[in-house]
């Protein structure tokens, strides 16, 4: 069987979204190329997989049966390629170090020259999005420097070295637009306005935890919740009067000049003593000395950059 | 940052484009320790095995085997680690292959189509009886009018379209199956008797009825002219004069009356997509041809 396994991934996507255009965009290929791929797959299998007769693309009966088994192959293929790349990295002494989009990661990236890796080890810094825990478990990433809110997402497959813990959450606003009293602040006040928060690319689980807390404690959601790709952007929006900023731990020092002019309080310090964790993460069963030694070096840099 | 690392890949060109053959050859060489023995196991040539293996090594970016002093092949550490990762993928591919074979054994759906007149007249059943699809396919029959047949074939609404005087797009192929016999209808004042050869037709007094594409009818006029019939015309909307003779194609006579080899005729044909996924289809249709 000479089926090109990559064509199965294209076919699966097409079968699910039913659009040649969207499939082309997803895989960064032209729509005619998507057609060619499907035609070749049909020729290889001797099956007609798609009915293109209406404006909508549908699977034939044979196409549906084929898709069912193709799904399994696609998943194993992706796992295989990830595994292959992991082996390749190990042999070439390359390490994927995932950094999220938090302020801390930006500071680490700016100082990456200060990380002294073991001889021959080549660190490769990659962006770790909200799924970095899964990427770490599966071997796509070797080390992650990440921020977590409460106990979000950690499993027994991941080990954590805590760099820093901060209590509670920061609530900040522009006093010209909101008349909250910092000395007499009541958290349910946030329900009256827009809430501006960092998204999951910077801190896992924060947004969903806030929404759940509001629902459980007050029976209400905030009037509006906006997520931002960085705490600085959220602070800019708060300064412009667009809402109230919520960020885990002690966010004001992280905001620099963007934080000046914002009134702020810390909420839930007593209730959430370990609300925010900055940590270095590896797999629990990690035996590779290169990974462990590099993680130690990254930890040392973090301690230096972010003293308590 | 060097890349956006997601569990699914962002571009097709990031993927190594592996096939089952790569894995099969990889396993065989690992088991047998040489290209030659692996080729024997796989019933292919040493050159093919070596080529597939080297192609695989290029795609994965590392050597999988190294040559020992006794010329046998030893799996490299990379190869050993990779081997352990191939099992689930190989298994899923075997399941996929089994499913494909099962779908073939069940009989793939084959959609024949034609316009209504060929269903009514019996022409279609005559032709279908000659096409031996055995257990390869499960046929079904659709009625599609001639003006839509090109689009229907190209969009896979049907697999084979039967008709007369078909003009096909360049992405289709056509197989001529049978000549359509003529019936002759002289007017009351037509001077000549029943023609047995195109030369017998009175010049300027013969008319052919159109079926299918206008191009097919014009071509047939020219063929009849080349065969000796002079100055004929297409019927169009005009009436037949008392002194004229009408030639009418009788598709329902196929199989009942042998088409006369002296007479250029309309052809009853099958059209299908070039390189149709059902590779056996062209051969089946060709074997049913009487032209």
Short description:
The complex is a heterodimer of chains A (308) and B (291). With 308 residues, chain A is of the alpha/beta class.
Explain how this protein is built.
The complex is a heterodimer of chains A (308) and B (291). Chain A has 308 residues and is of the alpha/beta class. Chain A has helices at residues 5-17, 20-27, 31-45, 61-91, 103-110, 132-138, 206-218, 231-239, 252-255, 289-305; strands spanning 50-51, 58-59, 94-99, 122-127, 143-149, 158-166, 169-173, 194-198, 224-228, 244-248, 263-267, 276-283. Chain A contains ten helices and twelve strands. In chain A, strands 4-3-5-12-6 form a five-stranded mixed beta sheet. The longest helix of chain A is centred in the first third of the chain and has 31 residues, at 61-91. The mean pLDDT of chain A is 88. Chain B contains nine helices and eleven strands. In chain B, the strands form three sheets. A five-stranded mixed beta sheet of chain B has the order 4-3-5-11-6. In chain B, strand 8 (206-208), helix 8 (214-226) and strand 9 form a beta-alpha-beta unit. Chains A and B meet through helix 1, helix 3, strand 1, helix 4 and strand 3 of A and helix 4 of B.
How does the overall form of chain A come out from the CA principal axes? globular
CA-atom Rg of chain A in angstroms:
24 Å
Low-confidence blocks of residues of chain B: 1-8
Give, in spatial order, the strands making up the sheet with the most strands of chain A: 4-3-5-12-6
- What portion of residues of chain B belong to β-strands? 15-25%
Structural class of chain B: alpha/beta
Largest interface: A-B, 62 and 52 residues
